[in-house]
Amino acid sequence: MHPEKLQAFVLATIDYGDSDRIVSLFTLEHGRIKAFARRARNSRKRFGAALETFARIEAQVGVKQGLSGLQQADIFTVYPGIRADLAKIAHALYACELVDAMTPEGHPLPRLFRLLAAYLDRLESAAACAAERRFFEINLLNILGYRPSLEVCTRCDNRFDELGALQQDDGELVCPDCTAHGRALTPVTLTRLLACLGTGTFGLVDFPVEALAQAGVALDDVLTAHAGRRLKSLEFLRQIGG
Known about the structure:
- Helices cover 37% and strands 22% of the residues.
- The protein is α+β, with helices and mostly antiparallel strands and 242 residues long.
- The chain folds into 2 domains: 4-78, CATH 2.40.50.140; 81-239, de novo design (two linked rop proteins), CATH 1.20.1440.120.
- The strands form 2 sheets. Strands 1-2-3-5-4 form a 5-stranded mixed barrel. A 3-stranded antiparallel beta sheet has the order 7-6-8.
- Helix 3 (110-125) runs antiparallel to helix 4.
- The protein is elongated, with a radius of gyration of 19 Å.
- The N and C termini lie far apart (44 Å).
């Protein structure tokens, strides 16, 4: 099997045996794949620091169904600016674990690859903040087809007006005419979330404090429902106030 050269982010690694590793990679060409890196824990020449989580690499991989074979990994960047700041590390680990949990295996998602690249580039050059985490999340949900309706009620198709929306336990957004129960999302919150979908550039959408809090609760609920497991990095993120 001839190896392919792939652009990839390291999402996670698991030690296997005495010297090997199994690596979760998010690639531009094949989406998320798992690859076996033989002697990765012993061979500094072949892998070096390239298998650190959220490193961006060029990988030579023998791609196949199931477990592919990682033959070599060359560093594109390990994001030294992120690794020097605890808050940035927490956000980067969370983004990678979220992609690992949410994406299907072996399905190319070039828009999501570019979104993750843009987020890590942003973290490398700017302070980590909750608003940009939420920007990443709503765009991830949109790319994967999981985002809630932000424009119209899912029950009656009426547009959300000045009364905003009410979020149900399953993440559904409903207008006040259809229900009196749920967590409120004001028109400002809905408008800011829609604005996040209207630009591919981090740092352009500002969230007022109340809107950021509402958006955070809404997105956390939707992501938890679709991720299928509790993310380990989320607790770390919460501990550092992210």
